[in-house]
């Protein structure tokens, strides 16, 4: 009887661990998967491509393609099962002459979009930490 009870309890725990998000869930899963990354990419790029402080970099750029590419990039970087076929960060930005101020505006917009869309603080900080070292490849002036 006791044996069955213990086995039952163990099975219940295995079950609930599967239902709830396990602590080992990838950042991709915790942040809300491809739908959330697509939303963050679309909203961030809509804002920075219209903001007069950053818009000049996006002149002549096909925004729908860039939005998809950024979503795929974020998917791969957060541990999602996506394929990113774009350029390296260095190659993608070398023509654009992006300043430190422009870079900071874009990261700030992304941070605000994550807040607005209800991304958790630890997920937000984890993504920003992943993006931080890319500054040296994106900022070229
Ligand atoms: C951490 C910050 C950034 C990340 C992760 C990022 C990511 C990307 C990605 C994934 C692409 C697509 C590359 C491809 O498909 O080959 C891209 C392209 C581009 N990015 Fe960024 N970017 C960042 C910051 C910025 C900033 C600050 C600006 C300008 C204000 C900018 C402007 C552009 C432009 C204009 C392109 C398109 C280049 C082209 O198609 O010729 N990016 N970026």
Write up this protein.
This protein has 141 residues and is mainly alpha-helical. The chain has a single domain (25-138), classed as Globins (Globin-like). It has helices spanning 2-19, 27-31, 33-48, 63-77, 89-93, 100-116, 121-131, 135-138. The structure holds protoporphyrin IX containing FE. Protoporphyrin IX containing FE binds at residues 48, 54, 57-58, 61, 66, 69-70, 73, 86-87, 92-93, 96, 98, 102-103, 106, 131, 134, 138.
Outline the fold blueprint.
Layout: H1 2-19, H2 27-31, H3 33-48, H4 63-77, H5 89-93, H6 100-116, H7 121-131, H8 135-138
Helix pairs in contact: 3-4, 3-6
Bound molecules: protoporphyrin IX containing FE.
Overall pLDDT confidence: 90
Give the CATH architecture.
Answer: Orthogonal Bundle
- Given this structure, which CATH class is correct? Mainly Alpha
Beta-strand fraction estimate:
under 5%
The low-confidence runs, each spanning 5 or more residues with pLDDT under 50, are: none
Output the radius of gyration: 20 Å
Head-to-tail CA distance between termini: 73 Å
- Number of DSSP strands? 0
The CATH superfamily is Globins
Residue share in helix: 55-70%
Structural class: mainly alpha
How are helices and strands ordered from N to C? HHHHHHHH
Number of helices: 8
**In this structure, how is the largest beta sheet organized?**
none
CATH T-level fold name: Globin-like
